C-alpha cells in the first residue's frame, strides 16, 4: 500500500503539539522542520546500500556501506513546503532542490501554478515532494504531473497531515507514488480545510495569519 502513516511516538508527539490553537510561529516552524526530518528518515528507509572500501582510523582497509543509486531532489511546494525544507535537508544535505509554486484558489479549491524551477537532471533523481498539507489533493496532483512531464519517475510525497479524500485522489492519479504522512485525519470541511488538521499551515509558518 503506497500510504505510510508514521506512528512513531516522536512523530505523534510533535504533531500533537502543532495542533494546539494559538501555537507561536516559532514553535510551528520548528516542529514542521523536525517532522520533515523524521518523515525523511522513514521515507528513505528502503534506499539501497552498496559496499565501499575505505581506510579506517587504524590504517586498515575496511568495507563500509554507502547509499547506492539515484540521487535526491527535494521538491518543496510554495509556500508552506519551505517550512519543512531545512529539516529534510538535514538528512539529505547533498540533495538538490527543485521548487514548485502553487496556491489553492480559495473559492474553487483548484491549484493555481505560478512558479517552477527544476534541477536539470531531475529525470535521474528520486524526488521527495514536501508540503505540510494534503487536503483535496489538487496541489499535489498538479505537482506530480509537472514532475513526470520533466521525466522524473521515482517520487515520494512527505506531508504532515493528509485528508482521506486527497489521498484517494492522489493515489488514483499516481498509483506509483508513495505517500508518507504523520496523520491521516478525519475529513475536509466545507472550505476544503482538513479536520482536525492544523489550520492554514502556510500562514502559520510565515506568520501571515
Ligand atoms: O490539497 P489541496 O486542496 O490542494 O490543498 C493543499 C495545499 O494548500 C496549501 O497551500 P496554499 O494554497 O494555502 O498556499 P500557501 O502554501 O502559499 O499558503 C497547502 O500548503 C497545500 O499546498
Ligand atoms: O487544512 C488545510 C488545507 C489546505 N491548506 C492548509 O494550509 N490547510
Ligand atoms: Mg496557505
From TrEMBL:
NCBIfam families, A to Z: PRK00129.1, upp
Catalytically driven reaction(s)? UMP + diphosphate = 5-phospho-alpha-D-ribose 1-diphosphate + uracil
Activity regulation: Allosterically activated by GTP.
Q: What the protein does?
A: Catalyzes the conversion of uracil and 5-phospho-alpha-D-ribose 1-diphosphate (PRPP) to UMP and diphosphate.
Alphabetized SUPFAM superfamilies for the sequence: PRTase-like
Q: How cofactor binds (record note)?
A: Binds 1 Mg(2+) ion per subunit. The magnesium is bound as Mg-PRPP.
Give the source's domain of life in one word. Bacteria
List residues of the Phosphoribosyltransferase domain: 5-208
Q: What is its EC number?
A: 2.4.2.9
- Named cofactor requirement(s): Mg(2+)
Output the Gene Ontology terms for molecular function.
Answer: GTP binding; magnesium ion binding; uracil phosphoribosyltransferase activity
Q: Name one Pfam family in it.
A: UPRTase
Q: What Gene Ontology cellular-component terms does the record carry?
A: cytoplasm
Organism name: Pseudidiomarina maritima
Name used for this protein in its record:
Uracil phosphoribosyltransferase
Family according to the record: Belongs to the UPRTase family.
Cite the annotated pathway.
Pyrimidine metabolism; UMP biosynthesis via salvage pathway; UMP from uracil: step 1/1
According to its UniProt entry, one GO biological process term is: UMP salvage
Q: Which residues does the annotation say bind uracil? A: 194, 199-201
Amino acid at each position: 500500500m503506497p500510504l505510510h502513516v508514521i506512528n512513531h511516538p516522536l512523530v505523534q508527539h510533535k504533531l500533537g503539539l502543532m495542533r494546539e490553537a494559538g501555537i507561536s510561529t516559532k514553535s510551528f516552524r520548528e516542529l514542521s522542520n523536525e517532522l520533515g526530518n523524521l518523515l525523511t528518515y522513514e521515507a528513505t528507509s528502503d534506499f539501497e546500500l552498496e559496499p565501499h572500501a575505505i581506510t579506517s582510523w587504524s590504517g586498515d582497509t575496511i568495507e563500509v556501506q554507502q547509499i547506492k543509486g539515484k540521487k535526491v531532489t527535494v521538491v518543496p511546494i510554495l509556500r508552506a513546503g519551505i517550512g519543512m525544507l531545512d529539516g529534510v535537508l538535514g538528512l539529505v544535505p547533498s540533495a538538490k532542490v527543485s521548487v514548485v509554486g502553487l496556491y489553492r484558489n480559495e473559492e474553487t479549491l483548484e491549484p493555481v501554478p505560478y512558479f517552477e524551477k527544476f534541477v536539470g537532471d531531475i529525470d535521474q533523481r528520486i524526488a521527495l515532494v514536501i508540503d505540510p498539507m494534503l487536503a483535496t489533493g489538487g496541489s499535489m496532483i498538479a505537482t506530480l504531473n509537472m514532475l513526470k512531464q520533466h521525466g522524473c519517475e521515482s517520487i515520494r510525497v512527505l506531508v504532515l497531515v493528509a485528508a482521506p479524500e486527497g489521498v484517494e485522489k492522489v493515489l488514483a492519479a499516481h498509483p506509483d507514488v508513495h505517500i508518507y504522512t504523520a496523520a491521516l485525519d478525519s475529513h475536509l470541511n466545507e472550505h476544503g480545510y482538513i479536520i482536525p488538521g492544523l489550520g492554514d499551515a502556510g500562514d502559520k509558518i510565515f506568520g501571515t495569519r
